[in-house]
Design goal:
By secondary structure, the chain is an alpha/beta fold. The protein contains 6 helices and 10 strands; from the N terminus they run βββαβαβαβββαβαβα. The radius of gyration is 18 Å and the shape is elongated.
Length: about 220
């Protein structure tokens, strides 16, 4: 199976092609480049993988939470390509992208939103909890009651500092598969696509704060 994936939720824009369960090509650029560079990077991975669009069996896209603008652009690209090529589109959330391939059974995955604002998901064999908002509020809502050692992925320094203030011992991990689109391409090979492209929607976590107009 050949899978083309796109993600712009987890910082910058990334795209990848998985062929037979292995990454054949990937590209990633940091910053707000999805609109200007996104489709050029998609063309690059086709060239590197030596595949043509008609050889793609399905597409995958990161649906967030994460960058508000990046999410909208990546999902629009993915839906447009899936519609033109008449291929199914598989949505993959940011938490699954961060955790993919880690083998962790109990983990806190953190996605950065606005400064001081995060989305987080705590997952264990017995519970799954997620929340979005200010760091302290989110940690209070999702963490288990006992201060046991905690595996964490995707956490920036301010989140690690907040956990240290709670006397929680953490083991911080980088994503096992990078860039994020590579994780999406691999994950999508094992998932059932939704029946309609309209079912693929962005998960913004917490919508950006409204800015009052200037007169």
């Amino acid at each position: 199976m050949n899978v083309l994936a796109l993600d712009a939720a987890l910082g910058g824009f990334s795209t990848a092609i998985a062929r037979g369960g292995r990454i054949a090509a990937s590209r990633c650029e940091r910053g707000h480049v999805a609109l200007e560079r996104g489709l050029a990077l998609v063309d690059d991975v086709f060239t590197e993988a030596q595949l043509a669009p008609e050889q793609i069996d399905r597409l995958a896209v990161g649906i967030g939470p994460g960058s508000f603008t990046g999410l909208r652009i990546a999902i629009a690209y993915a839906k447009s390509l899936a519609a033109v090529w008449r291929r199914p589109l598989v949505p993959v959330d940011s938490f699954d992208l961060l955790e993919y391939g880690s083998g962790l059974t109990e983990v806190l995955a953190v996605v950065v939103g606005r400064p001081g604002v995060i989305s987080a998901r705590y997952r264990s064999p017995s519970a799954t909890r997620r929340a979005s908002g200010r760091i302290g509020d989110v940690l209070a809502e999702v963490l288990p009651a006992e201060n046991a050692p905690l595996a964490i992925v995707g956490a920036p320094k301010d989140v690690l500092d907040a956990l240290a203030e709670r006397a929680i011992i953490v083991r911080a991990f980088e994503p096992a598969v990078a860039p994020a689109a590579a994780a999406a391409a691999l994950a999508a090979g094992f998932r059932t696509p939704p029946a309609s492209l309209h079912e693929v929607r962005a998960d913004y976590g917490e919508l950006p704060a409204a800015k009052p107009p200037r007169f």
